[in-house]
Amino acid sequence: MLIYLLYGVGVYLLICIVFYTMQDYFFFRPEILPGNFQYEYPFPFDEVHFEMEDGGYINGLHFRVPNAKGVVFYLKGNSRSLKGWGKFAKDFLGKGYDFFMIDYRGFGKSAGKRTEATLYNDAQTVYKWLSERYPEDQIVLYGRSLGSGIAARIAAWNKPHLLILDSPYYSFLYQVRQYGFWLPLKWVLRYQIRTDFFIKKVTCPIFILHGTSDRLIHFRQGKMLHEDAPNSELIALEGGGHNNLPDFPEYHEALYEILHDEDRYTRLVPPSK
Question: How many angstroms separate the CA atoms of 63 and 199, rounded?
Fold first, then answer.
């Protein structure tokens, strides 16, 4: 009996070690691009590079429109690269905003060791770069899926005009616990990404867009974040899944109103005393 118990404990410990060492492969699905890859999009853009103090390298794309109302800093999900994600620029360029997006370390042309801290610090470096080119009250932070927690962290550190969260998770720990509830996640999960903690420190208006039929990150997580942030509005997209919100006319209608209807977002922030 003792042998079986020791065997079970050994297997469990082995699973924990594998999870700890291999979780980057579970959570991130990057597309790696050669350094000489040429992006092709039907609207004007500049390719921008950032060299980090620790040796990391971040690649980004800066799309522009004449007489822009501001810029949307879009923090993307956990897959592919700017080669495909750049297509979402049209959703904001057509609404009168410039658009900026980066690849995280290990994605596309970006390189370097990826940790939770570098995800935040890289995004903060880019935010500071944007704030030198745009007034901060013209910067909109947009976080989709994985990027929602990073966007919330950056919004908590700064004072952007708006924060938009698309299909967000309550926290990375909360999301992973649904599938790995039997693991000691508090000790083996290297990415906590506490959106629930960051959102309480955000002072700008927050809009949460979430599909009611999202099977990957359940709608209830967006609802929980909304309940934690009195300066937020939850926009439920009926029947929306995790990857198809831009296919819904209601998504574009909501996005247009968020970006252009001043009354809609000013009512979310209490007047200064």
Answer: 28
In a domain, 271, yes or no: no
Confidence band, pLDDT 50/70/90 cuts, at residue 178: confident
User: Domain of 62?
Assistant: 2-266
What is the number of domains present in the chain?
Answer: 1
**Considering the domain boundaries, does residue 272 fall inside one?**
no
Whether residue 235 is contained in a domain is answered as: yes
Please state the pTM of the whole predicted model: 0.92
Q: What is the CATH number of the domain that holds 168?
A: 3.40.50.1820
pLDDT in tens, 80-96: 999 999 888 999 999 99
Give CA 27 to chain center in angstroms.
14
Q: Which residues contact residue 139 at a Cβ distance below 8 angstroms, ignoring those fewer than 6 apart?
A: 70, 71, 73, 127, 130, 131, 160, 161
- Strands 98-102 and 206-211 come out as unpaired
Query: Tokens 């005393």, residue?
Result: 273
List the structure tokens of 52.
């980090």
Per the domain annotation, does 273 fall within a domain? no
pLDDT tens digits, 115-163: 999 999 999 999 999 999 999 999 999 999 999 999 999 999 999 999 9
pLDDT of residue 7: 47
* Confidence category of residue 250, pLDDT binned at 50, 70, 90: very high
Tokens of 272: 């200064």
